[in-house]
Amino acid sequence: MKIYKYILKAHFAPFIISFFIVIFVFTFQFIMKFIDNLIGKGLSWWIISQLIVLNLAWMVTLAGPMAVLIATLMAFGSLSSTNEITVMQSSGLSPIKMMIPVLILAGLLCYGLIEFNNKILPEANHRTRVLMTDIQRTRPTFVIEPGRFSDDISGYNLLAKKTYPESNKLEGVYIIDNSNPLSSNILTAERGEINFSHDYSKVILDLYDGEIHHLGKKNAYEDYRKVKFAHHIVSIDAQGFGFSSSDENAFSRGDRELSSDSMRQIISRLKSDFYSDKNTTIKSIQALVLDFRNIKFDVSKLDSTEAKSNEMFVKSLMNKYKGFKSKLQGMKQAERSTQKQMDTYQVEIDKKYSIPFACVVFVLIGAPLGIITRKGGFGIAAGMSLGFFLLYWIFLIGGEKLADREFLSPFLSMWSANFILGFIGLYLTFKSSMNFGKLFRKIRFRKQP
Q: pTM of the entire structure?
């Protein structure tokens, strides 16, 4: 029991360190990927922090198995390099028995990740999509082309003869203000500067050396006023430029935003709807076949005066036949479409279980590899882990694409990586056990007088 605790203790620090390093790498990669969509939008740190925290959900799902593989390689590699594995073997503990406590903890972690994937990950993915939609919809600024009117702001037309985007300065400014239904203002200025307020709710225009021409809508001549100014500030509501949160319930959920139970219900409903339509079509075709049988019996007994009416009846049935033939083809297409939809959901269901199960598979790979290589350093463990995880990911992504093209069943597409790597892990485990058995038989033989 103490040996098992010692083995688990050897895994604890490498697992925690590896887990947070992998999370950091994923976070850095995410920031680099979306930095162009975030910078310059005037987003608060709270919004950016929300986006990062929500994306931590999928990072945790992938970081868990990766950290298990790194920790197992480091722990067993370190124990092997210091000959502690040899000491344990001499006390009758085989490598397979040494792996038992680690496999139990990997199984518990697998269960925890499955629960995480079904309860937390779908909500996080949904909120991430809503938040990303809001961010993409946010307009931080509008383009002012020299010599052309800009109508990006509702109720205002803005013209500048020259623009300086790097300093937000303008020359030859001409503004038509139609925001007031009772009057119209025309502002001209030799120069100006345009900026947003800190919350992007206002457009602030600083105008210098200009005039304001006030015109009444009913009687422009009588209500006309002209005001000159050296410095004038115009504050305009900038609707649609700042960030605004959407209602999450207004967005439909995709397959990655649903739990396994929800997707199973959808699959069941798709099956039920399809078979209901299929049964209706089959009954219609059976009725048509019965009509044709009746015609054959009646035609043999008809005289010439009734032939025309019967011919019209036959034509109507032929039209029905063509219609039902078209409906049958449509049913086949609907079957393919329904099956593709069900496969898409089934792939996501299997993925929620297959990735967590990789924790167990990676223990089977990491433990014997660590014993064989006798290297407990983080660099070697991380490099080997990256290679195996890339192989695992290639199988996973490739399997998903093959399932989409109906070359593989969803189950095989998502579980083939676990089966193949698990088989490799079992082979390495038994290989390492056999090697240690031979080694200790030699040691005992040498000790005999």
A: 0.69
